[in-house]
């Protein structure tokens, strides 16, 4: 076996259904952890962004399958960026993640009504993230 090969990965990669993912967070360390986790699940990180405005521009440029985005960021927050991305149809799904979303006065139900494909609280559950990605990889349609 090649010593440079990766460990066994979750099922989505094994069946060749790879999602193209844009990761957005204002904290570089969080962007890296989220991106590494998604790559471990067998999906492709097509880019990253540090805030909502950059996320909107990167989604337009990259056309990812999924945007995994923090909510509380300087400038344009994740909910506003999600709305812009979904209205422009530059990504199929947006998964919002946050540990501080309550301080913005937005509820989980509101996020889902506004079009979020999912919401995860930080620190996120890796198993739950893998499950969402696997489900979305099996369903390439727009939600």
Q: What is the terminal separation in angstroms? A: 40 Å
Strand order, main sheet: write it out. Answer: 2-1-3-4-5
Secondary-structure element order, as H and E? HEHEHEHEHEH
Any idea what the CATH architecture is? 3-Layer(aba) Sandwich
Rg value = 15 Å
Any idea what the CATH superfamily is called?
Answer: Response regulator
Overall tally of domains = 1
Number of strands: 5
Helix content: 40-55%
- Fraction of residues in β-strands: 15-25%
Low-confidence stretches: 1-14
Structure overview:
A five-stranded parallel sheet has the order 2-1-3-4-5, with helices on both faces. Residues 1-14 have low confidence and may be disordered. The protein contains six helices and five strands, in the order αβαβαβαβαβα. Helix 4 links the parallel strand 3 and strand 4. Helix 3 (52-62) runs parallel beside helix 4 (78-88). The N and C termini lie far apart (40 Å). The longest helix has 13 residues, at 28-40. It is an alpha/beta fold and 143 residues long. The chain has a single domain (17-134), classed as 3-Layer(aba) Sandwich (Rossmann fold), CATH 3.40.50.2300.
What's this, in brief?
This protein has helices spanning 11-14, 28-40, 52-62, 78-88, 108-113, 126-138; strands spanning 20-24, 44-49, 66-70, 93-98, 118-121. It is α/β, with parallel strands linked by helices. The protein has a single domain (17-134), classed as Response regulator (Rossmann fold, 3-Layer(aba) Sandwich), CATH 3.40.50.
How would you summarize the topology of this molecule?
Layout: H1 11-14, E1 20-24, H2 28-40, E2 44-49, H3 52-62, E3 66-70, H4 78-88, E4 93-98, H5 108-113, E5 118-121, H6 126-138
Parallel strand pairs: 1-2, 1-3, 3-4, 4-5
């Amino acid at each position: 076996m090649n010593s440079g090969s990766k460990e066994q990965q979750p099922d989505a990669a094994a069946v060749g259904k790879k999602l193209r993912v844009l990761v957005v967070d204002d904290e570089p360390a969080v962007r890296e952890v989220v991106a590494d986790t998604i790559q471990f699940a067998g999906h492709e990180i097509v880019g990253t962004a540090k805030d909502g405005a950059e996320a909107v521009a990167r989604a337009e440029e990259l056309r990812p399958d999924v945007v995994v985005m923090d909510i509380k960021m300087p400038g344009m927050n994740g909910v506003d960026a999600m709305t812009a991305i979904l209205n422009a149809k530059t990504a199929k799904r947006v998964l919002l993640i946050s540990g501080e979303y309550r301080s913005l006065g937005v509820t989980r139900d509101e996020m889902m009504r506004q079009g979020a494909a999912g919401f995860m609280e930080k620190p996120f559950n890796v198993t739950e993230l893998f499950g969402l990605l696997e489900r979305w990889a099996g369903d390439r349609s727009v939600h």
